[in-house]
Design goal:
352 residues, Neuraminidase, 1 helix, 46% strand
């Protein structure tokens, strides 16, 4: 299996992003709007994208995201190490956020970070990397760093997979870790997973998910269902997103089937009410929700008119949900909104 990420595929993903909606308000809380800014400039070129958020054991929220000068930020004179992984904290349930810190900055373009705090207290941050090649770039797979001090320092850089990841490590009830992956082979593209049985020290070879003959850019995410199965959501470009299920803990997967609506970069989340929400790009930034363990989905609910997406969600102390996402375009920033999922629909909440 090739480790090379085709430049044409990444270019298509770039073009799929919606046009910029650059904002110029200086305040973190925007009057008359229902979102706050998580970060507007992490010091790497004022383009922030691909966020992910988790709750720390100390109660704070921690968000990671890509920081560069554009959708792809290869090393140049102004940013000699290329795009990097940055992060920031919130101590007030997402209303305000600290200045950005550097999580990881290697010699190439490090991107699409996701973060998870495990039950043992460690933070795992996964991301993939693009390396310059000729006049373009090539991918060099997915990597991981970890932190034992709530994200202040990060160590243990190690490869996870030659495939790519845009969603977080998920800790299963049996203690195993699973990570959604995706890959392309020139004439095909598909989702996959990798599994760790030793808390992230090592990872299995990729387990490919049958795509049913439809090329899937995938950006796979995984959630555990109440009946013990695993459910994987996968991106498509023009048709309905696809899903697949596994009844053996991720060792094998059913042929992918339509979810019933289009979307990119799916992120799966279980609310305190046991409602499963999938957030995604297309149209703009949107969510669907399911009250029957992903058997059926609601109509589309728009989160925001901006089209960057790559969303992530976390439960707040009052039982509501924080969703983070990005704008796309020059000067792209990270935004956050909050809502409550109910069987009757999504209730958007204002910031007090």
């Amino acid at each position: 299996m090739r480790t090379k990420w085709c430049a044409s595929v990444l270019l298509a993903m770039v073009l799929a992003c919606a046009a910029a909606m650059a904002q110029d308000e200086p305040r973190p809380l925007i009057a008359g709007k229902e979102f706050v800014y998580v970060c507007r400039d992490a010091g790497a070129g004022a383009y922030e994208a691909f966020p992910d958020v988790c709750r720390l054991a100390d109660g704070r929220l921690f968000a990671v995201f890509y920081a560069g000068y554009g959708h792809v930020a290869l090393p140049n004179e102004n940013l000699p190490r290329g795009g990097r992984v940055s992060g920031c904290y919130s101590s007030d349930e997402g209303k305000t956020w600290t200045e950005a810190l550097v999580v990881f900055d290697g010699p190439d373009d490090d991107r699409d970070p996701s973060v998870t705090q495990l039950s043992d207290g460690r933070l795992l941050c996964v991301f993939f990397t693009l390396r310059p090649k000729g006049g373009g770039y090539r991918g060099i797979g997915t990597w991981m760093v970890e932190s034992t001090d709530a994200g202040q320092t990060w160590t243990g850089l190690r490869p996870v997979s030659p495939y790519y990841a845009s969603t977080p490590v998920r800790e299963l009830a049996d203690g195993r870790l699973i990570l959604g992956l995706y890959q392309e082979t020139g004439d095909d593209a598909f989702g996959a997973v990798t599994i760790s049985t030793d808390k992230g020290a090592t990872w299995s070879p990729p387990v490919d998910i049958p795509n049913g003959g439809l090329r899937l850019d995938a950006e796979t995410d995984v959630i555990a269902l109440k009946d013990g199965r695993l459910y994987a959501a996968q991106r498509t470009e023009k048709e309905s997103m696809r899903f697949s299920t596994s009844s053996d803990g991720g060792q094998t997967w059913a042929v992918s089937e339509p979810m019933g609506f289009p979307g990119h970069c799916p992120y799966l989340y279980r609310s305190p009410e046991d409602i499963i929400v999938v957030a995604h790009r297309l149209p703009n930034t949107s969510i669907h929700y399911s009250v029957d363990e992903c058997a059926t989905w609601s109509e589309n609910v728009q989160v925001d008119s901006v089209g960057g997406a790559y969303p992530s969600m976390v439960t707040l102390n009052d039982g509501s949900t924080l969703i983070v996402y990005y704008e796309e375009g020059e000067g792209s920033s990270i935004r956050a909104r909050k809502f409550r999922a109910t069987p009757n629909g999504i209730e958007w909440l204002e910031w007090e």
